[in-house]
């Protein structure tokens, strides 16, 4: 029986956004603003006794690049990413978006445990895939 472990990869991206409602205060400013986002992705699963890996982090790095980072880095989230045309680009929604994009890129999405997105050193959000429906995945387009 293999032992169960956790492995993670952290990436960074820079993007502009605006929380488009008066109740968001300064985040609603018409000029928008930017963040240097930090994204931690955590996988959980059996450690292969031969390779010593849950997944090869080189593969995880590639999935993150093509499924997520290429679509958000140096972008305006609200204008350039279709998913955020119909919902606010909050840290919570970003974590959901990244979770779904990464899950869809992985050969075995059951290994995806957690996505943590930090918008600033003070503000971060975590998502573990709870409550998602097939309709959510269908809407997770870039
Ligand atoms: N629940 C959420 N609330 C807020 C979010 C969010 O994603 N989820 N986002 C924002 C704004 O994007 C805003 O940019 C946050 O930045 P700010 O308040 O400036 O950041 P700090 O708290 O780190 O800065 P202070 O210097 O402490 O004001 C707002 N709310
Ligand atoms: Zn912001």
TrEMBL record:
<dbReference type="Pfam" id="PF01242">
    <property type="entry name" value="PTPS"/>
</dbReference>
<dbReference type="GO" id="GO:0046872">
    <property type="term" value="F:metal ion binding"/>
</dbReference>
<keyword id="KW-0862">Zinc</keyword>
<comment type="similarity">
    <text>Belongs to the PTPS family.</text>
</comment>
<protein>
    <recommendedName>
        <fullName>6-pyruvoyl tetrahydrobiopterin synthase</fullName>
        <ecNumber>4.2.3.12</ecNumber>
    </recommendedName>
</protein>
<dbReference type="InterPro" id="IPR022469">
    <property type="entry name" value="PTPS_His_AS"/>
</dbReference>
<comment type="pathway">
    <text>Cofactor biosynthesis; tetrahydrobiopterin biosynthesis; tetrahydrobiopterin from 7,8-dihydroneopterin triphosphate: step 1/3.</text>
</comment>
<keyword id="KW-0479">Metal-binding</keyword>
<keyword id="KW-0783">Tetrahydrobiopterin biosynthesis</keyword>
<keyword id="KW-0456">Lyase</keyword>
<dbReference type="GO" id="GO:0006729">
    <property type="term" value="P:tetrahydrobiopterin biosynthetic process"/>
</dbReference>
<dbReference type="InterPro" id="IPR038418">
    <property type="entry name" value="6-PTP_synth/QueD_sf"/>
</dbReference>
<dbReference type="GO" id="GO:0005739">
    <property type="term" value="C:mitochondrion"/>
</dbReference>
<dbReference type="InterPro" id="IPR007115">
    <property type="entry name" value="6-PTP_synth/QueD"/>
</dbReference>
<dbReference type="GO" id="GO:0003874">
    <property type="term" value="F:6-pyruvoyltetrahydropterin synthase activity"/>
</dbReference>
């Amino acid at each position: 029986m293999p032992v169960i472990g956790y492995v993670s990869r952290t990436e960074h991206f820079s993007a502009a956004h605006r929380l488009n409602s008066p109740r968001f205060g300064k985040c609603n400013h018409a000029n928008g603003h930017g963040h240097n986002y930090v994204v931690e992705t955590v996988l959980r699963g059996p450690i292969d006794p031969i390779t010593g890996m849950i997944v090869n982090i080189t593969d995880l790095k590639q999935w993150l690049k093509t499924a997520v980072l290429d679509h958000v880095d140096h972008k305006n989230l609200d204008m350039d990413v279709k998913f955020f045309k119909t919902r606010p680009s909050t840290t919570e929604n970003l974590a959901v978006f990244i979770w779904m994009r990464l899950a869809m890129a992985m050969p075995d999405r059951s290994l995806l445990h957690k996505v943590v997105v930090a918008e600033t050193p003070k503000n971060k959000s975590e998502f573990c895939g709870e409550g998602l429906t097939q309709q959510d995945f269908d809407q997770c387009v870039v």
